[in-house]
Amino acid sequence: MAALKRGAVVFDLGGVLMLRPRLSVATQSEEQALGRFRIFLKDFFTKGGPDGPFARSEKGQITLSKFLSELENEFKANASAAGVSVPSEFSAEKTFCEMYLNGELNKPLLDAAITLRKHGFKTCILTNIWVNDTPTRENEAKMLNRLRSHFDFLVESCRIGMRKPEQKIYQHVLDLLKVKAHETIFLDDLGSNLKPAKEMGMKTILFRDPDAALKELQDLTKVQLIDIEDNRPTFCNPDELSHGYIQIKPGVQIHYVEKGNGPVLCLCHGFPESWYSWRYQIPALADAGYRVLALDMKGYGDSTAPLDVEEYTQEEICKDLVVFLNKLGISQVTFIGHDWGGCVVWNMALFYPDRVRAVAALNTPFVPCLPEVNPLNKIKANPAFNYQLYFQEPGVAEAELEKNLARTFKVLIRGSSDQRSVSFDTANVCTRGGLLVGAPEDPPLNRIMEEDDLQYYIQQFKKSGFRGPLNWYRHIERNWKWGCTAPSKKIMVPSLMVTAGKDKVLVPKMTTGMENWVPHLTRGHIEECGHWTQVER
Question: Which PANTHER family match (predicted)?
């Protein structure tokens, strides 16, 4: 079978992406009533043709509650006329909702749709659906919102006044996707809905058995959809997110992206990154029921990059975060941080525990500030931290890292399996005369830094430069002295520490003994992972 040109795949919702539940009944009389109801529904759905109550509900001409009211009355009248006894507790409205408003997500097919989109296919959900004004409306809205982010389009019949199997709705979808019928595959569980699509030239799949349908879709597209090897989650496009700005004080603002609804998660990135380093986590966490705020930390991207080095102390940055939360009216959040962002979230939990529901750090350990232990001496004693000493002189590292942004990011941001192809070491940087000295002039892209990612990082750092990001490193002793003033040396909020086995700088053994300072600590470990945990794993 010839592979379909990279065109479009259109998915039905109910019965395809959402599998219908099996109803169970407690008594024989309820079983009889359910059987009668199924027979009744077949006639009721077609009653009145395009002007019947079901068709009108799917075209948005009446609401779901109005349709259900008519359904209940008609079923009672139908049963009475047929001399069928219906138990008093049997509700046609409730049964319909259980049959058509509940269901289980067809995860393998959703994964297939995501994979096809990654391979260049346009994807669309085409569903006959109603305007839901019933108590179930929130659950339906959540489900549609979750699915919407994984497809190019969601076409709801009630919003456009057309429904399957009217031919004009299929033409509407083709126009929306900008494809020809012969370039399109359509999956539906009703043959009557597939018939006009097939007559127009679409390739169709009658969805009966989930495994068989997935195999047929794989055969048509020639894309591996069963036992998918590349199981990286969907990432978010910057243009498809809500962007916000909070003024912290005159001349200083924080940029963030936002997605989802629910308990608040605040994501704090490290060096040299951006909110974009959380691109895989943002949609996944939003789908899981959280409101996700991913920040451009001070000095990065679309946040302000003040010239004054004093703006970049941990004390000042934590104060900024408190103002950020205050202005959004958020009392508590769960903070998640990586690299320098990990330092920030530990300090928020230490100094502002009242604003922290829980805290999680990727790679970055919590190290208590003790008056007798100067961290500068520890940095000097650790060869892997020599780059931090190189960063101390203003202007030097800036010039090196800004000279060729593409080279900088292709050298620095590499997966653990890609590190062998590029010579890079954070030790002996001062002696070598630069962080990138010895690295290739034009290193190859890699699995966690593809061309689109690279261009976004270049765009962001053309705005901010490296002065702000490097200023974070220029307060080693000042941050230590501030840390020594904490009212407690222990972090008492629920905490998660995730270590990465292949991180050569923030090595897992640095977290040894954290339980002494973080009593409510949970640990996670990813052995085959380097420093860039969010994008590698």
Answer: EPOXIDE HYDROLASE
